[in-house]
């Protein structure tokens, strides 16, 4: 499955994922701690420099990931332009851009496997307490495995709908999609049980 | 145990799959995606606990960096965006929707599941979404609420459809509606 990690490797790809996530949390907390447009503007410039350090293509990819912010930025511009609270609007807009771009930066430079490793590290205390985290690890793998399969079944249902009706397939194919998901779940559960279930290896 | 896990995982995958269905556009130009209907269905079909866990699992994968949200969005950025409140509210919405379907056994399932989806998937969800937007955009709660009212008609349609889908599933395969199991 395609992940959002940027395939072009930058220096940030080689930094430990845990470090990047910790830095991101700290930076985001700091962004929300200030209301001064000057500081937030500097933060946006800093994030832009971070993206540019990965090359022009990386910068453009980062920019296109910000497109979901446009409606909100237009809204803020209109709102604060009309009410005259320019500084407050600027602060909100700059903070949004900086926080979102920074979070995207971490996602774009961290491989899925590294992210999962951090997750498993964070869950280590639970394992110490004797709780199994195998269920979570297994379910993550299952979602990654079955999302394309369910999407494919949805596509096939859409095709068979089109073969029988001149109208577009709509919500009516959702019911069979849900039924197929339940069927898959039952079969996978049976297969797991047949292979010893969720017990950790070596428990028997 | 295994069955609960596979059901939760497969419904997380179903939410992702529903994000790929092309968006419908309402008469007045507001796009609605089938994805939030998936959240309602997690509640009405799987029940409160499993439904909420399926949505949580889905969000965990989005945070890990998979582009599973409608329109191919994902990653940590969506949790720093203005709509983060809606994402945080999703598991709670599925839980409340599921709880209502589990507890309220009188009346037709289509009606129960639709009303449950309206309460969980709209009332509860928007409470979180509006609060999140108020924080992220630095607006009052009332101002943020006004900004999202345009999406409510689409969500009401989705809630009714979720109810109909749940009822159809119960009629054709009664064992599949686990919230009533």
TrEMBL record, chain A:
Regions that span the bilayer: 39-59, 66-82, 88-106
UniProt keywords, alphabetically: Membrane, Transmembrane, Transmembrane helix
Top-level taxonomic group: Bacteria
Protein name (record): Energy-coupling factor transporter transmembrane protein EcfT
Species the sequence originates in: Antarcticimicrobium luteum
TrEMBL record, chain B:
Protein's recorded name: Biotin transporter
Species for this entry: Antarcticimicrobium luteum
Membrane topology reported for the UniProt record: Multi-pass membrane protein
GO molecular function: biotin transmembrane transporter activity
Family per record: Belongs to the BioY family.
Main location: membrane
Coiled coil: none
Compartmental location: Cell membrane
């Amino acid at each position: 499955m395609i992940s959002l990690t940027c395939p072009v490797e930058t220096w940030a790809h080689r930094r430990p994922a845990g470090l990047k996530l910790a830095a991101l949390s700290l930076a985001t907390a700091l962004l929300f701690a200030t209301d001064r447009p000057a500081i937030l503007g500097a933060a946006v410039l800093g994030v832009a420099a971070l993206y540019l350090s990965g090359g022009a293509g990386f910068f453009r990819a980062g920019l296109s990931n910000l497109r979901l912010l446009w409606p909100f930025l237009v809204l803020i511009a209109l709102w604060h332009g009309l009410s005259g609270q320019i500084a407050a609007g600027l602060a909100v807009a700059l903070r949004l851009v900086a926080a979102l771009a920074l979070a995207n930066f971490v996602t774009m430079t961290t491989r899925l496997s590294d992210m999962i490793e951090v997750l498993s590290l964070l869950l280590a205390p639970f394992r110490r307490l004797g709780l199994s985290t195998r269920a979570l690890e297994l379910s993550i793998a299952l979602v990654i495995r079955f999302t394309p399969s369910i999407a494919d079944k949805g596509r096939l249902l859409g095709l068979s709908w089109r073969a029988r009706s001149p109208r577009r397939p709509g919500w009516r194919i959702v019911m069979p999609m849900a039924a197929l998901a339940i069927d898959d779940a039952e079969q996978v559960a049976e297969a797991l049980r047949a292979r010893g279930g969720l017990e950790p290896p070596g428990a028997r | 145990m295994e069955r609960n896990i596979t059901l939760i995982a497969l419904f997380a995958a179903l939410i992702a799959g529903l994000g790929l269905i092309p968006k419908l556009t309402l008469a007045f130009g507001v796009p609605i995606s089938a994805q939030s209907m998936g959240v309602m269905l997690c509640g009405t079909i799987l029940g409160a606990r499993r439904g909420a866990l399926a949505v949580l699992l889905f969000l965990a994968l989005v945070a890990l960096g998979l582009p599973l949200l409608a329109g191919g969005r994902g990653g940590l950025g969506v949790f720093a965006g203005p709509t983060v409140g809606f994402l945080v509210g999703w598991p709670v919405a599925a839980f409340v929707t599921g709880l209502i379907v589990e507890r309220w056994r009188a009346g037709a399932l289509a009606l129960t599941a639709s009303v449950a989806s309206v309460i969980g998937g709209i009332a509860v969800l928007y409470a979180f979404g509006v609060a999140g937007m108020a924080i992220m955009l630095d607006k009052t709660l009332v101002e943020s609420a006004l900004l999202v009212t345009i999406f409510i008609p689409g969500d009401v349609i989705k809630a009714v459809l979720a109810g109909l889908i749940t009822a159809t599933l119960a009629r054709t395969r009664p064992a599949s509606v686990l919230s009533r199991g």
